[in-house]
Amino acid sequence: MATTSAGASEIPNARTPKDGSAAPESDGREVVFSVRHLWKVFGPKADRIPEDSSVTDLSAQELREKTGCVAAVRDVSFDVHKGEVFVVMGLSGSGKSTLVRCLTRLIEPTSGELEMDGEDVRAMDRTALRELRRRRAAMVFQHFGLLPHRSVVDNVGYGLEIQGVGKTERRKKAGEIVDKVGLAGLEKRRPGQLSGGQQQRVGLARALAVDPEVLLFDEPFSALDPLIRRDMQEEVVRLHREEGRTMVFITHDLAEALRVGDRIALMRDGQIVQLGTPEEIVGSPADDYVRDFVRDVPREQVLTVRRAMRPVEDGEADQGPALGPDTLISDAIEAVARSGGAVRIVDDGRCVGIVDHACLLNVVARVDGPQHGEVAA
Ligand SMILES: Nc1ncnc2c1ncn2[C@@H]1O[C@H](COP(=O)(O)OP(=O)(O)OP(=O)(O)O)[C@@H](O)[C@H]1O
């Protein structure tokens, strides 16, 4: 795959044909949620909208004027892979919350296919749905909904209580999770005696206590001040690294999306305009909207040397310092500055490219040099 084309051919398109021929590829990875042609329409005769080809291509505003309906989610298809942090990002009103609530049918989809672990979620009865929400895909909300008269440890154990787990076992398990999220020593406090960040940790701990396969976060940190927010983002990344739990994370904050996401689905007017890794979104924006969105991102902190390296010339393959192909441009800049010359990019013992001052600067300055895209990763 050429470095600059990364993502373009892999981006699952939100508006895939009805026959599913362009359904997203999962690269052989295990799929937790599989979503195909999902629609959620609010308004009169909403269920007719996805079927009616005379209105499905209208803009959000035209659709509203013509039908009185809002298509909060429009023909969206994607997979969430096991063990990834899948971020749903977009401006206010783009459909993030509606889409994620559709995954566990907290909002009932209008049409489309929806599976979790191969099971048809739309066909589930009330009992199966309750089980899904309680044990399999737990939601962490922005307003954490803690019980004010209960202690931290009892709030954390609440989900276990609902499951009928006995008090001793509940307290033991809740105590372990309290430690895990950095609340040790605060077990007996009431939520009102905690800071916003600590309360959010309790909310997170409560979701973790039931050991769900997937954690769904709805803008969990947007009410927190920036430093605590940063702390919580690191907490999520740490938990994810240690446990490999699958997470779906809604945010309208690009920096947050880039920090926590393995892949990001960028939404606009109910559609996914681009789905890719942070590097693909920042390095190969799908259209002007995405380009505008990522314009102020410090590219050197997101892009790797794969996008900067030039072909190896005679005599360069065996000498000089080496870096891995996943090294961030910012780290490579430091390495090149220290070495005073070119640095080899070595993958699996093989020199696959070279970075020097010029090609690193080209990426930072958004100049596509002649080497750009010519080196196979
Ligand atoms: N119950 C409803 N009835 C009618 N329209 C709705 C309803 N819920 C959401 N919408 C509309 O659907 C669109 C998507 O809303 P949604 O809340 O999913 O967006 P969002 O990206 O999560 O926004 P925010 O970041 O502000 O929470 C918006 O235009 C919203 O007004």
Automatic annotation (TrEMBL):
GO biological process: glycine betaine transport; response to osmotic stress
Pfam families: ABC_tran
Keyword list, A-Z: ATP-binding, CBS domain, Nucleotide-binding, Transport
Entry superkingdom: Bacteria
Gene3D superfamilies: P-loop containing nucleotide triphosphate hydrolases
SUPFAM superfamilies associated with the record: P-loop containing nucleoside triphosphate hydrolases
Organism expressing this protein natively: Streptomyces sioyaensis
GO MF terms held by the record: ATP binding; ATP hydrolysis activity
UniProt-recorded name of the protein: ATP-binding cassette domain-containing protein
Residues of the ABC transporter domain: 58-294
InterPro entries with a match to the protein in the record: AAA+_ATPase, ABC_osmolyte_uptake_ATP-bind, ABC_transporter-like_ATP-bd, ABC_transporter-like_CS, Gly-betaine_transp_ATP-bd, P-loop_NTPase
Record's GO cellular component terms: membrane
Family in the record: Belongs to the ABC transporter superfamily.
Matches recorded under SMART domains: AAA
